[in-house]
């Protein structure tokens, strides 16, 4: 297959994300149909409708690409070994959407081999469009986006869940930080890519569809994305998940890893 240029991929991703956002907003004008996925949380008719739309839109444009989505049963034969694979969370932050909190996003990533290559994260309620690709740069609503150059944890804007930083959880307490909570994982990562936060930490296993777009955005914006022990993320695996994620600008990242590596590795739990 002939791989598309980064510019061509980003054009497709942005168009698909905006159209999916419009679809989601229109469906929210009617009562939601909410189901439970147990420990995986709620799912709605909006999640399924956006998933179906994106599959038709994206694979219609790139029929040779692989496919992985939260709302589509994973078929590894559809993705493993593909030169590029779409990784989709049709609604990232479904609980926020149900609660009408403007913290949910549409997350569309493209993985090339085992690396997150390009991504679009769109918040339909705030009309924030984050797009970026490796070696092509990142933008927020068309303007260049860059990670921050912060090199101290003290006073850093950490986009994460506040309870994760209680002193009893850590051998050495974290310094005082400005912890910003957002429900969508992709949104947290995109905000770091745009310099609207200095860092984000994601603890425990995270599905590849949650993080692929955000990982591409952060790298495209000049940042660093690894697991909590400083190892590179490898995508298009089976099972499709990563054991936690640390992301920030290059100067801050070693300070994150110095502390986050003390977190228990979920891979060590049977």
Automatic annotation (TrEMBL):
Molecular function GO terms recorded: inositol monophosphate 1-phosphatase activity; metal ion binding
Sequence positions that bind Mg(2+): 70, 89, 91-92, 210
Enzyme Commission code: 3.1.3.25
One Pfam match: Inositol_P
Organism: Terricaulis silvestris
Domain of life the protein comes from: Bacteria
Family: Belongs to the inositol monophosphatase superfamily.
Cofactor entry: Mg(2+)
UniProt keyword annotation of Magnesium present: yes
GO BP annotation list: inositol metabolic process; phosphatidylinositol phosphate biosynthetic process; signal transduction
Record InterPro entries: Inositol_monophosphatase-like, Inositol_monophosphatase_CS
Alphabetical UniProt keywords: Hydrolase, Magnesium, Metal-binding
Class in the EC hierarchy, top level: hydrolase
Keyword Ligase found: no
Coiled coil (UniProt feature): none
Name of the featured protein: Inositol-1-monophosphatase
């Amino acid at each position: 297959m002939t791989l598309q240029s980064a510019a061509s991929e980003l054009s497709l991703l942005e168009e698909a994300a905006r159209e999916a956002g419009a679809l989601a907003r229109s469906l929210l004008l009617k009562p939601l149909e909410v189901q439970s996925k147990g420990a995986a949380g709620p799912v709605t008719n909006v999640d399924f409708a956006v998933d179906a739309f994106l599959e038709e839109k994206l694979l219609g444009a790139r029929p040779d690409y692989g496919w992985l989505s939260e709302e589509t049963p994973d078929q590894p034969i559809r993705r493993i070994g593909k030169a590029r694979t779409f990784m989709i969370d049709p609604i990232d932050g479904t609980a926020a959407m149900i609660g009408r909190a403007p913290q949910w996003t549409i997350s569309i990533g493209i993985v090339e081999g085992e690396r997150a290559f390009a991504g679009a994260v769109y918040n339909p309620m705030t009309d924030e469009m984050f797009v970026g690709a490796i070696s092509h740069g990142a933008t927020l609503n068309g303007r260049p986006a860059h990670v921050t150059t912060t090199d101290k944890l003290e006073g850093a804007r950490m986009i994460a869940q506040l309870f994760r930083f209680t002193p009893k959880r850590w051998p050495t307490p974290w310094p005082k930080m400005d912890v910003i909570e957002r429900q969508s994982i992709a949104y947290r990562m995109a905000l770091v890519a745009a310099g609207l936060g200095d860092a984000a930490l994601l603890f425990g296993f995270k599905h590849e569809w949650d993080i692929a777009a955000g990982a591409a955005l952060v790298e495209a914006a000049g940042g660093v994305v690894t697991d909590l022990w400083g190892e590179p993320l490898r995508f298009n695996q089976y099972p499709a998940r990563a054991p936690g994620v640390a992301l920030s600008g290059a100067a801050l990242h070693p300070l994150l890893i110095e502390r986050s590596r003390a977190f228990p590795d979920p891979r060590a739990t049977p």
